[in-house]
User: Fold this.
Amino acid sequence: MQKKWWHEKVAYQIYPKSFYDSNGDGIGDLRGIIRKLPYLRELGVDIVWISPCYCSPLADEGYDISDYYNIDPRFGTMDDMDELIAEAKKYDIGIVMDLVVNHCSDEHEWFRKACEDPDGEYGKFFYIEDMKDGKVPCNWRSHFGGSVWEPLPGHPDKCYMHLFHKKQPDLNWENPKLREELYKMINWWLDKGIAGFRLDAIINIKKALPYKDYPVDRPDGMSKAQNMIADAVGLGDFLREMRDRCFRVYDAFTVGEVFDEDPSELVNFIGDDGYFSSMYDFSSNVWGQSDKGWYDCKPITPNAYRDCIFAAQKRSEGVGFYSNIIENHDEPRGVSRYIPEGDVNDTSKKALATVMFMLKGLPFIYQGQEIGMENMKFRSIDEVDDISTIDQYQVSLDAGLPEDEALKSISLFSRDNARTPFQWNAEVNAGFTTGTPWLRVNPNYTDINLESQQNDPDSVFQFYRKLIALRKDPQYKDVIIYGVTAPFQPERDNLIAFTRKTDAQTLLIAVNFQNAPQTVKLDVPYKKVLLNNLSELDGTGAEFTLGGYQAVVLEL
Ligand code: TEU
Ligand code: CA
Assistant:
């Protein structure tokens, strides 16, 4: 595997609306990010991915872009963006923008022109079809519920396709003129000096054509869009072209949002000659999902979590670098998902972080993860902003769940769990804004906030700093970044243990993912404890006992 500049980096995702509000309007903004750059440096991150801040009606919180070349006034101005890119450079931080090119907003100029003249140039930028006897072309269900087909405004005899919300019309990648427009825009941003892009929903850009129905999977008579996507052939041609015309020219870092990849295809995505630098490993995030909806999803167990990450490590070994996450803006908080209920505390949070940071791949921290932010307790559906959660609430009700059960079912998975404002301190609104926050602050901010953790050497935040420092330690970084991962005693319950090995060094990461102690025996005594989330490690070098949720990194 070729070595790349970004292999040694630690990345951090900012959801701008909820990070820091600099002007008291209740909405996080770019000047807020600029102000917090010293904080990001203190934490030790090198790459910052910012979720969309382009002009947008915010129907899907910025993933519906109405102007790729401008910043939404709620987030700031292009001058703020230029300043952010320049200031971040001074801190050795590269800015990664979100590239949302499967769809744009229905308020984008292209779509407005397409509605004016569906047969004209811009009509061909979208998927616009005639209704036949009042019927839509096929039975695909959008990712956010309902048909992917929506009547074209002003043309009741026509419809347009949206794999996501109806305010997110899909862009027609089959049209070379559309692709040229997108490459121009991508390069315009790269010319500004950004480090790269995170590629939103990117596998959706290739549709299986011509239209046909897929097997019905819910009482609504439709079939999830994923069935069609899995059937589409030729995605690689688009991705290769975009790579060669844009990312390669700038040696930019790219990370793809890819779901359901076929293991044999991984090399095409992230191999030395892959479409992207990296892609997220979502295997544990999607574990237990059900076609019926969130209400039918199974909670993940520590053993299942371990099996997911070991399988991903094995798939990617010698192939390329996954990007590892425990959460993002589409997921519940990782500590609430992967740690069994009742066991969530600072020690278990540090244990989970140890697993994530010691895997091979690029760690992506999601804002607030580093202080152990937890899921929100929603009191009513009225407190929810996210369109996906609102759809899933309805799916639960339609399945016959009473209101309180429906609320419970969406609470576990709601994307708003991760979107509540960052908890900076114990002051009003957790120090996020002096105004009224756009989304309710998690009331646990008096216990969980950055300021108190900055002053506490044993805090979750300080532990994250130690993990990052260990990854960058000249003595160990080679084995942590490039060492081969091998499972250690994977047949044991609730033990997540693995080695990382180069010719020169071997590390053992051992995490006891339960409250009862577990004893681990080695062939030879370990040499040194590099990191420990408790103050002691019981036992001798060759046989030691891990306490509840104890996590250690050992040099063998
Ligand atoms: O997500 C793509 C995606 O497939 C997920 O949104 C998933 O279907 C959803 O989270 C289920 O609740 C990306 C973005 O990360 C997401 O925020 C956007 O809403 C979506 O694309 C559309 O741009
Ligand atoms: Ca603001």
